[in-house]
Amino acid sequence: MAHPSQLGFQDAASPVMEELLHFHDHALMIVFMISTLVLYIIIAMVTTDLTNKYILDSQEIEVIWTVLPGLILILIALPSLRILYLMDEINDPHLTIKAMGHQWYWSYEYTDYEELGFDSYMIPTQDLSPGQFRLLETDHRMVVPSESPVRVLVSAEDVLHSWAVPALGVKMDAVPGRLNQTAFVASRSGVYYGQCSEICGANHSFMPIVVEAVPLEHFENWSSLMLEDA
Amino acid sequence: MSMFAVVRKQLKSHPALIPLFVFIGGGATMSMMYLARLGLRNPDVCWDRKNNPEPWNKMAPTDQYKFYTVNMDYSKLKKQGPDF
Q1: Could you tell me which residues of chain A have a Cβ less than 8 Å from any Cβ in chain B?
Q2: How does pLDDT run across B28-54, given as a tens digit for each residue?
Q3: In the beta sheet, which residues pair with residue A165?
Q4: What CA–CA distance (Å, rounded) separates A196 from A104?
Q5: ipTM of this model?
Q6: Contact A86 B70 (CB under 8 A)
Q7: What's the pTM value of the predicted model, to 2 decimals?
Q8: Which fold, A15-49+56-88?
Q9: Which regions span the lipid bilayer (chain B) (predicted)?
Q10: Which CATH superfamily hosts domain A95-229?
Q11: Strand pairing of A95-102 and A116-120?
Q12: Residue of chain B whose alpha carbon sits nearest to that of A87
């Protein structure tokens, strides 16, 4: 999860998020180089003792500063499009979970084998135990098996919401009357936090998402326990 | 003179503008080609209401509908839903 004064992305917990991180590094490096060049040119122009500072015509430099930005844009576009298409691929998920947005909580349904469904409300600040995260913890977490492709079908029961977990590189709008599909693979076991990402009323900031990735045997134990409690 | 002839004449005295035409022309061509591909190949689009009224009902798991696949091998997939 995010830590105070964090500037960059959270550590990647899925292969897609790793790709996004690396692409961001690539694009940011290009942006830093261009910004440094521009800043240098500005300072050089402003601090020079030369009096004839303005070139009136030069075909060679015009070619250079047309072709070079074009090439740079292509260098950015090709990895970007590759990741765009990669993110749309759904590679034979082992499990399908429905995440339904309500005002103001999420509900998860695991209906592949048995009928398992539960609501996930935020834990109010006054009820937190020491060590728990304010405005991020929920009473029931969405537990998934680690290293297994999981498909999430996202929808909403009342107004627009959005199901997002930054560490997994996942965000999908929850639209009433529409079923949106996304998928992820949790590369390692862990707890991953997200928050509702589409304004949905008074408690939009208070309906977080917690995904807990556990090894498969633990997932099976958890789902049996949840079915007994229901 | 036609517009193309005028531009060609002007380009001779300003050859540095040729890369501009290449990149802008290339970008415009690529986007128009993608739009054409979407119009013709996208299963959501219906051109012939009499002979092919609902192309989205004829999708097979082994067809590739996206422009580019990174990791998926569509020829290996099997149909998972029921026939209707």
Answers
A1: 59-60, 62-63, 66-67, 70, 81-82, 85-86, 88-89, 91
A2: 999 999 999 999 989 889 998 898 888
A3: A170
A4: 9
A5: 0.78
A6: yes
A7: 0.87
A8: Helix Hairpins (1.10.287)
A9: 20-40
A10: Cupredoxins -  blue copper proteins (2.60.40.420)
A11: unpaired
A12: B70
